[in-house]
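Sanity check. The docking grid for NAP depends on where the pocket ends up, so I'm generating a full predicted complex first rather than guessing from homology. Inputs follow.
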Amino acid sequence: MTDLDRYGPWAVIAGGSEGVGAELAQQLAVDGFNLLLVARRPGPLETTAEAVRAHGVEVRTVSADLTRPESVAAVTDATEDVEVGLLVYNAGANTHGRAFTRGELAGFQGVIDLNITTMLALTHHYAAPMRERGRGGILLVGSLAGYVGTSTEAIYGGVKAFGRIFAEGLWAELREYGVDVLELVLGVTRTPAMERAGLNFDVPGMHVSEPADVAREGLAALPHGPVHVISGNEATVERRLSPDRARLVAGTEKVMRLLVPPH
Ligand SMILES: NC(=O)c1ccc[n+]([C@@H]2O[C@H](COP(=O)([O-])OP(=O)(O)OC[C@H]3O[C@@H](n4cnc5c(N)ncnc54)[C@H](OP(=O)(O)O)[C@@H]3O)[C@@H](O)[C@H]2O)c1
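Predicted complex below; grid placement will be based on this.
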């Protein structure tokens, strides 16, 4: 159960229409949180909002592309008149999973804008008043990709590494003000976005999580930052901290070629 007094009354979920974001919305609504859900496609956004309203909470939606600078004002304007005690930044998939020399710079920039630029802008907007109030939570969704570079995740892995280090620093800054910060590190998770991307969930030995379980574990871990690795992925993180980077990168590259369909 997520503490409404500590993190309520409103939560913003950036990437709240599907997968882990939608499950977080459902679970927070059960605990009485009012919600602002943000995603690009209005269809899934409204479907999730309707389902969440059934729990008797107020739900607002903003259809915006978080890679665009104007999305920041669209989100913050929608919560101008309410108190946001929890920011979840979930949107962040690798939308341009190309080898660096084969990809478009604009595509890589989109990955950076989604995972860094807009994440920082929204965190800055919502965290400062939380610090003043002496309570609140910031939950940033990260990835195992943030622990190693591979040819098609050089940018994505980099932005996820940034997110984790940023979360650690923000945790160090805000803990004495009663604001919890968590980087929630996901391994492979059966989300609609990954299903559409054609991810191979059957790589031998690979751990696959379900969105509802990830959401439950993430909310439970919120007071215990700065970093929580979703269960089943601990050994992978341990391995990815190895100082033998050449061996690690070459081995991970082989696994990535099994996991992600070639472009
Ligand atoms: N699934 C995995 O295996 C996995 C593994 C490791 C880490 N993660 C992390 O987990 C998080 C969620 O991943 P996911 O697989 O569910 O995919 P995702 O596409 O990043 O997130 C899904 C949610 O975000 C919204 N969204 C995506 N791009 C957006 C944009 N540019 N602007 C506004 N909303 C956007 C989606 O709705 P719309 O598409 O309608 O915009 C949907 O509601 C990400 O941060 C990802 O890096 C996932």
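Relevant for the grid: The longest strand covers residues 136-143.
Also worth noting: The mean pLDDT is 96.
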